[in-house]
């Protein structure tokens, strides 16, 4: 998001204060629907303790992730750092899923940069307990991350038994 960058809220206390009144959850809080089937929380998926707080000892049947395309808090990371960060939330997702669960990941593939970060992400995924089920691509999508030859990619993975 280089065209209209939003300042990091941890570095802009005045902006954080102004936006805070519109937030329904604060860091570390979660909401659970009355039937107890869904939870939404304000946590860091790369931190195992945060994922544990969200899950509350339960496991999930499905995880859907749409990580930023190498724009973490609006600061670009080196590819190796980005994949290392992905490895953390993938590992935490694996631990939070039931034995017969699925993981869907939407990721970018920049044609001008060897389709990164997709290739390195896929190599990292080979070392996890997930088994690939399908690989679906969509091209020329509108929205952030796609205006300059980005290709949105969905990977469907299943947790190995």
Distance between the termini: 39 Å
Counting H and I runs of at least 4 residues, what is the number of helices?
Answer: 4
The overall pLDDT average reads 81
- What is the gyration radius calculated from CA atoms? 17 Å
**Structural class of the helices, strands and pairings?**
alpha+beta
Task: Give the topology string: H per helix, E per strand.
Answer: HEEHEEEHEEEHEE
Biggest sheet, in brief? Answer: 4 strands, mixed
Helix-residue proportion: 25-40%
How many strands in all? 10
Supply the number of structural domains.
Answer: 1
Class, according to the CATH hierarchy? Alpha Beta
Overall 3D shape: globular
Summary keywords:
161 residues; alpha+beta; Rossmann fold; two-stranded antiparallel ribbon; 4 helices; 26% helix; globular
Question: How is this fold's topology laid out?
Answer:
Blueprint: H1 13-20, E1 30-32, E2 39-41, H2 48-55, E3 60-65, E4 71-72, E5 75-76, H3 79-96, E6 97-107, E7 109-110, E8 116-117, H4 118-125, E9 130-139, E10 151-159
Helix pairs in contact: 2-3, 3-4
Report what the structure shows:
- This protein is an alpha+beta fold and 161 residues long.
- It has one domain: Rossmann fold (3-Layer(aba) Sandwich).
- The protein is 26% helix and 31% strand.
- The chain has helices at 13-20, 48-55, 79-96, 118-125, and strands at 30-32, 39-41, 60-65, 71-72, 75-76, 97-107, 109-110, 116-117, 130-139, 151-159.
- The strands form four sheets. Strands 3-6-10-9 form a four-stranded mixed sheet. A two-stranded antiparallel ribbon has the order 1-2.
- α2 (48-55) packs parallel to α3 (79-96) and α3 (79-96) packs across α4 (118-125).
- The longest helix has 18 residues, at 79-96.
- The termini are far apart.
- Mean pLDDT is 81; it is low at 141-147.
